[in-house]
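Example record for the data management plan.
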Amino acid sequence: MRLTLFVEHQNASQVFTMTNTTRSYVGRENADVVIASSFCSKLHAILFQNIDGELVLKDLGSRNGTYVYEQKVNEAKLAAGGKFRIGGAVITVLAYEAGSEFYDLESKRDVSSSLALL
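Corresponding structural encoding:
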């Protein structure tokens, strides 16, 4: 997948672009999208492409929650233009393009979409 996010936090903004991946992590440390906030867990949430090619946001058991359009969610589907909030940061999906592989959350591995059709 190809994913571009616009992050607004503490009067600053930044654009993150991830390519050739099936998943991206959002968190305070060691994440693809780093949010410097004590209200954000080290690994707070994951964005991944599901088997249907949809972009899914899943909270990873954070203490302060993940919000989509100001509703606390455990998991939600997003599209370009979608917004979510983590640790005081407002994150907008600027662009999303599905790839040929998806992320199997249960087995925690990448799977080719062509294999899923068998």
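Summary line stored alongside the record: The longest strand covers residues 89-97.
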